[in-house]
Amino acid sequence: MTIKLIAIGKTDDKELVKLIENYQKRLSHYIQFEFEIIPDLKKAKNLSESQQKQKEGDLILGKLNPSDVLILLDENGKQFDSVAFSQYLQKHMNSGIKQLVFVIGGPYGFSEDVYSRANGKLSLSKMTFSHQMIRLFAIEQLYRAFTILRNEPYHHR
């Protein structure tokens, strides 16, 4: 199985980029992982909120294969602790799917088309985080989940 994380817009903070790359490298020891950035929309300031969500949604949907399981990182999604999240990943791995795709939307969230295509929604916290920070948190939690599944000490350091 491959796990893919898709996000809208590049990460501006160089320190965050280093941390994200660090956890990507760690995660690659456990599973095939891809992190794909969809560039920010050009002239987004000229678009309404709904137009921006629709255009970003079209770009997201264009990155998916029909067989992909799509999980949206969404404030109204299901919340897990780290152990339960590792079990959630294990269930997906056991199901025989080829690719599990997590998506971090743009500043206004997702279009209705993306919500319709989604197989689930996941929330990392009831708090609101920047779209830049969520990338790091999502990749770190994926890494943590695999260390839990392998019974490695990272989770309890």
Automatic annotation (TrEMBL):
**Catalytic activity, reaction form:** pseudouridine(1915) in 23S rRNA + S-adenosyl-L-methionine = N(3)-methylpseudouridine(1915) in 23S rRNA + S-adenosyl-L-homocysteine + H(+)
Localization, per the record, is: Cytoplasm
Q: Does the keyword rRNA processing apply?
A: yes
Q: What EC number(s) are associated with this protein in UniProt?
A: 2.1.1.177
Cross-referenced SUPFAM superfamilies:
alpha/beta knot
On assembly, the entry states:
Homodimer.
What PANTHER family has UniProt attached to this entry? METHYLTRANSFERASE, RIBOSOMAL RNA LARGE SUBUNIT METHYLTRANSFERASE H
Q: Which family is it part of?
A: Belongs to the RNA methyltransferase RlmH family.
UniProt protein name: Ribosomal RNA large subunit methyltransferase H
- Write down the species: Hanstruepera neustonica
Q: Which gene encodes it?
A: rlmH
